[in-house]
Write a structure and sequence with these properties.
The chain has 180 residues and is an alpha/beta fold. It is 44% helix and 16% strand. The strands form two sheets. It has a three-stranded parallel beta sheet, covered by helices on one side. Helix 2 links the parallel strand 1 and strand 2. Helix 6 crosses helix 7. It is elongated.
């Protein structure tokens, strides 16, 4: 339970882009899948007895035994460090775009379509959009779409420049669908 809580805290504060878990316990399978869906690179370390479902839930799984823990090659360590650098250097926009599946994108689009326009170039108030989402399904919160509690909807919309356009006046954020 502590590990799960720590993972969720890391994800909400965006302080990690890679998380490693050392365990052969398949109870971590759902957590690992959740992390991957939300753009966290996952590395698992475990014994040979680790179930395939857990091994396959990680981006990378390293099987440990008494000798292997001492003999991880420098090449593998360098490769892992380079992978982590590559992940850290990925454009946040691309990461978010890859993580938000088409179902969630369609939910956002539908919510904008169902939110009343303020008649200024077809923009919708984001506060009204959020209410529409909540009315569609109470679980459609910022965290459902991969945002932390303190993140702005603008961050999500801006990560999809081909789909959404935002407009901010003072502290009022508006959004509309882009027309091609």
């Amino acid at each position: 339970m502590r590990i799960q809580r720590a993972v969720f805290e890391c994800m909400q504060t965006n302080i990690a882009n890679c998380i490693a878990i050392v365990s052969s316990d398949s109870d971590f399978t759902d957590l690992t899948i959740y992390m991957r869906k939300n753009g966290i690179y996952t590395i698992g370390f475990g014994e040979a007895k680790t179930l395939d479902i857990l091994k396959n839930s990680y981006d990378e799984f390293i099987e440990l035994n008494n000798n292997k823990a001492k003999t991880l090659s420098d090449t593998h360590i360098k490769s892992t460090k380079q992978n982590n650098k590559d992940i850290a250097n990925n454009n946040t926009t691309n990461t978010k775009q890859n993580n938000l599946d088409s179902k969630k994108l369609n939910i956002l689009i539908k919510a904008i379509q169902n939110t009343k326009s303020d008649n200024t170039n077809n923009y919708r108030l984001v506060t009204m959009f959020a209410n529409t989402l909540k009315n569609m399904n109470p679980s459609y919160t910022k965290s459902y779409f991969g945002l932390g509690a303190s993140s702005s909807w603008k961050k999500l919309f801006d990560s999809y420049p081909n789909h959404f356009e935002t407009y901010k006046v003072n502290s009022t954020l508006k959004v509309k669908l882009k027309t091609n």
